[in-house]
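INTERNAL AUDIT FORM
Audit reference: QA-55
Scope: verify that the stored structure record matches its stored sequence.
Auditor: D.O.
Record contents follow.
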Amino acid sequence: MTLARLQSALGSALRARVAGDDASERAARIWDTPGERWFTEQDPVWRVHADAAMFPGGVAALLLQMLHPMAMAGVAGHSGYKGDPWGRLQRTSTYLAATTFGTVEHAMDTIGHVRAIHERVRGKDAFGRPYRASDPHLLRWVHVAEAWSFLHAHQAFARTPLSTSEADTYVAQAGVSAGHLGVVDPPRTVRELEGELTAYRAELEATEQAREAARFLLVEPPLPLASRPGYWAIAAGGVALLPRYARAELGLPASPTLSRGVLRPLGRASTSTVRWAMAGVGRDRAQDRAA
């Protein structure tokens, strides 16, 4: 197999995992449909969400979101993450792609679909407290954890990190879809985002559901044995991004030395490999469109 064919094969396998077997059809609708869009290729949110650093960033976001008992109860009770983990990932990636790269019409349709699902998701958390997925306060936590994780992953693992002003713009742009989803007055600067993360600290606690989900995500992922080392390298980068208290709550390595010396280098190397593989998908797609 030539290097180019290997690149295409690896990239296609990654895309199928993240976006599903119908990734080509979804991509055509998102990228090729003419119409007004919220963002352009020059916008920070486009650059962040299109980069391979989203892979460890996504792992970090999931782990961080798990620390809110109500958010974790919603995932455990309604997402089917164990029975269909890749389906959940694919739905999330489709949402991010549609709201970042798609037309405004497609983005709003996607947001409307998710809002309708949220209205049906409710129950009680591990402490018996009622929750509903449409609660603006809970939606805000999910958004804050996600935007914080994606931004930090980009700054740690992207070839070209955002400038200070670009990072502020990213936070504001990430809040556009969040506002339509039901987040009231989402943060608009990095300082506000960091403040929001700190403000939620008192509500965070790793329940047994969260620790079980973390084990599922990190120790025994639903992957063939041959694929696990590469996945673990990506996951190591995600773990390295987490605040120290989050790693301690989930029973993960909390040593700063281990994070800097082992986990971050693994994350950087795996992200570079993913970026190389996905470049092959982009090349093939450009050739198909030109044919």
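Auditor finding: record pair retrieved intact. The chain has a mean pLDDT of 90.
Action required: none
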